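Inverse folding, one chain.
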């Protein structure tokens, strides 16, 4: 465990993560964000500001993948989550848990 995670560890704390990188980009006309985190267990995680629902899809696509071995792998999965069903005719849904 890194010193910063050790410093923050307490009986009152849980799920400590370090923000590694944050990206902002446009997909079509929608501005979206990607955050990459590193957790106390040594894995990278990602979060996107939005989810996309393609025109003929029942719902938004949210990947079930959670822990990644590298920042690059986490970023690749974030990109896939945003673009796997992107057709330019669907709609974007905001991710309420993106801000923290």
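Residues assigned per position:
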């Amino acid at each position: 465990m890194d010193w910063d995670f050790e410093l923050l560890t307490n009986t009152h704390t849980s799920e400590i993560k370090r923000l590694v990188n944050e990206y902002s980009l446009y997909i079509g006309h929608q501005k979206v964000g990607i955050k990459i985190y590193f957790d106390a267990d040594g894995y990278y995680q990602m979060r996107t500001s939005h989810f996309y629902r393609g025109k003929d899809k029942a719902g938004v696509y949210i990947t079930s993948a959670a822990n990644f071995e590298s920042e690059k792998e986490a970023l690749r999965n974030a990109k896939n989550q945003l673009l796997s069903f992107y057709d330019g005719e669907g709609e974007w849904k905001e991710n309420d848990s993106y801000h923290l």
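Helices lie at 3-8, 71-83. The chain has a mean pLDDT of 93.
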